Amino acid sequence: MNLSHTLFNTVSNKLRLKVSLLNEEKLYVKSLRAQIESLKKIKENSYKDISIQKNQLENGNNQNLVIMYVINISFLKANTTIHVSDIKGNMKLFYSAGSVGLAGKQKRKRRVAALKLISLILKRATFLNKKPVALHLKNVNSYKNIIVSKLKRSLFIRVVKSFNQIPYNGCRKKKVRRKKYTKKFR
């Protein structure tokens, strides 16, 4: 009788374990179904939001759009450039330091070149007024604050991104080869 009792206990314990695992799986499946339904609702709502934004764009209401234009300012080794493009990448305006009357080594004077280019862009780009703009700065290290403050006075800047491509230490030096010494015989 003792053997049958232990067999019964082990079988019943295994069944309880299987039942508890089934209950856990059942709860897991229910939570997955709830998540799927909530994601479907979010997807439907986002499609509605996109259609609303398209309608607003067609009607001329651009208040909810994130960015309309991108202004790129680049400090190159021998020049300073600025260009304005729309979101799709179509260039609207482009100026370099040579277009504001700077030539030769004057183009490397960053502060003068940047301020002249910014004032030129503000005069020519009247379409930027009251529209959200992203500002991309390449290799602009210490002049970042000057440029941003000058542009903020007359433009609505939404995003400022800084890309520094010049390394802090510079490139690794080339390995110096040792000269081979040969003895001269007399």
UniProtKB/TrEMBL annotation:
Transmembrane segments: none annotated. Signal peptide: none annotated. It comes from the Eukaryota. InterPro entries: Ribosomal_uS11, Ribosomal_uS11_sf. GO terms for cellular component: chloroplast; ribonucleoprotein complex; ribosome. The keyword Ribosomal protein applies. GO terms for molecular function: structural constituent of ribosome. Keywords: Mitochondrion, Ribonucleoprotein, Ribosomal protein. It is found in: Plastid, Chloroplast. GO terms for biological process: translation. Belongs to the universal ribosomal protein uS11 family. This is Ribosomal protein S11. The gene is rps11.
